[in-house]
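Lab meeting notes turned into a lecture example. A postdoc, R.K., suggested we walk through two folding results consecutively so the class can see how the record format repeats. The first protein's sequence and structure tokens come next.
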Amino acid sequence: MHTDLFIGGKYVPAQSGQRFADIEPATEEQIALVAQAAAADVSRAVAAARDAADRGPWPRMTSEQRGKLLGRLADGIERRARELGTLEARDVGKPVSECINHDVARAARNIRFFAAQAETWTQDASFGAAQFLGGGVRLVNLTARAALGAGAIIIPWNSPLMLATWNLGPCLAAGNTCVLKPSELAPLTCLALGEIANEASIPPGVINIVSGMGEAGAALVSHPGVDGVAFTGGVATGRAVMSAAAQSLKRVALELGGKSPNLVFADADLKRSAAGVARSIFRSQGQSCVAGSRLLVERSIADQFIPMVVEEAGRLRIGDPLDDRTEYGPLITAAHRDRVHRFVREAVAEGAQLLAGGKMPEQRRGFYYPPTILDRVAPRSRAVCEEIFGPVLTIERFGDEEEAAAMANAGSYGLAAYLWTSNLERTLRMADRIRTGMVWVNSFFLRDLRTPFGGARSSGLGRQGGRYSLEFWTEPKLVCMTYTEEERDG
């Protein structure tokens, strides 16, 4: 288990010697003491990334050469799937089966996918007569895409390895170098990437990893040696990142929070929809930006449908994250569990009905909080309007499509929405009216990696996935040339 910073191809302690405790959510015990980077350590990491970008071999390789090394990186992740998945389950509290079969598998796929995408990433060219010059002069315009240089990647704690590689993949495949800062709450699988990168023969300085608190993140975003910032996290921090990056006009991509609605219509397959609604909110204990935390159900089926969702929530196997049979683990910290519980208590005090969960577990070790369902929640309740980032589902009722769209668009978030209906025309109408970056229909989080991922309004700026990610990590450059027929032939 690596607990030092990874800079310039080596694990090194923080210059201050400071470390912070990494706590296991399921046991409340310390897993490790991890190096705590300060601004000076961030400067070292940026200098290593900058040197690798300006003088190293990585940006000067062909995309095929980089792709081969990135393939080795993906191979290394796959070889350690059980080890990495177990480590992430301990660090985050997610079920180990989810960590191994989804998060670690997806991490390797992210790297491999973007390496392949970069190999087919072509330049644009246009040819024509330069009539304004006369004399049979011809014109050719080439649009090349050059790597930005040195990037900063800052990710949260809920799916650290998957989210790190989702950004690392396109950043590295395009020829950039980077400094990755994982959350201080779950840094261990990201720190392990350094060793895997060395085994894959990734040149020193291409990947640098600094663990630490907010000071490290702030120093990274504001550092003049960083050319672009990809941030995933909360809205308030996203605003601070954007403000700090503006001082040196850095390019910024923000993937922020969500308050995603599940809209269930009377013509939906109710059994399938109930299972989908429960999965969309309670997977990862609700600690997901795309969690379907609001159930908007057509009034005519509410009395029939709501008990079905409650039943689905009651079927979840809650237990030790390291047990392959576990489906639901603890929350990340005691402080986060307390925050989730405050939302629930406040909603109940305002008149909400508690249909499931909502109580602190007694005599159980770990930061567990039960799957919770709140009905009859006041429309302006904080539980409805603010991102809880926990296993809490609120229920509202609607009468028709117009009311459903208005309710779905209430609030400031716009990351995702889920539609449950068998009517294709309704699907298209509602998908057009809902102000979100993504709409899933009769499904949850199934996505081709070539398609855009991102949100509207307070849920972020920019898109990730396929060419959208590669466009962010490259700078278009026009090369304009003229030639005569004689020059072409001679």
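The second example is placed directly after the first for contrast:
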Amino acid sequence: MFNDCIIMAGGSGTRLWPASNSMMPKQFLPMPSLSAEPEAIAAGSFFNAAVERALKVVDEEGDGRVIIVAGHSHVAHIVRACERYSPKELKRLVLIPEPEARNTAPAIACAVNYIDWMSGEERKVLVLTSDHIITPLEKFIVDAAAAEAFAAADKLAVFGIAPRGPETGYGYIEAGTLVSRTAEEPQTFTVSSFREKPNRQTAESFLEAGNFFWNSGMFAFSSRFILEEFRRSAPEVIRPFGKLRAPDERSFKTERGLRILWKWLDLEEAYEKTAAVSFDYAIAEKCFPTVMVKAGFNWVDVGSWDEYALLAGRYGTHHAEVYHHNARECFVDSDIPVALIGVEDLIISVRSGKNGGPGSVLIAKKGETQHVRDIVEQIRAKDRNELL
């Protein structure tokens, strides 16, 4: 199917703070186990689930690779997470540590340049996020195959999620004309526009219109096509990477079977000079022709503690060591024992700092955890970024 897959595993998401922080971002947290679904992805972290998706859609017979792009501070987490894979699977993985976080456009530009240098030929590429729940795997594979066909025809393919409500936390894709040819194929549309995260009123109008979809943040394209799109629409992003020399064997090291591009000469300077911008803004919003595959798979962002607690409670994932008396309907995520007395409908997340990260506690009433972002902003305003 695809020649290569890029997994964006950087970032320091704070919507699940304090469990998710710069030292242990959401993608490395245990994913709520979907054991109630017979075709569910094997239990592990969000990142593990992304790798397993990638391995299923990358050409196994050829030289298909899974390129993981993440920060230097995440390398240990990735090495540990990849210990579960066989030598044959590890041979297909490579990790590129970013010198600094510069958003998704530089991450993709870096990885595509690497692909172009290492292969020297046109490649079909899929870009995956590393912090979502996607099930069942079989439907994802079908939709990925549809996107691959358009990528091979020099189009940018994106995946749109049918909205389940007027969500203001996602970008939207406005679908145009239906272009899929048969009823058996995943529904695929031209893209009329991309829209930034809307206010409530605008989100409600999108829902009423019926042709707006959540932007999943996943893309498919051919390597030479997207490099040309970078040169046309975002030269300030791609230009610094064009000055890099192709890495040689001395640039790599191997840790526990995982190949890491550890010393790529001048990569740090390229990241200093590139523009910090999202792929959506730099490329997708300016790129035509673009098509949207309407997702047949289930997609969950798990963007709040309320959502995480709902999934974890529903499917019985492992909770913290909890002692309680007269306490009801509470969810606890903690790395130390917690006791509850006479409380109800709380979400409690505790990180003691015993593993080297910041020590912090969140106590929230169920239904209020979207305001974690407000707490994060207060922490930043007090210049206590070490807590994040």
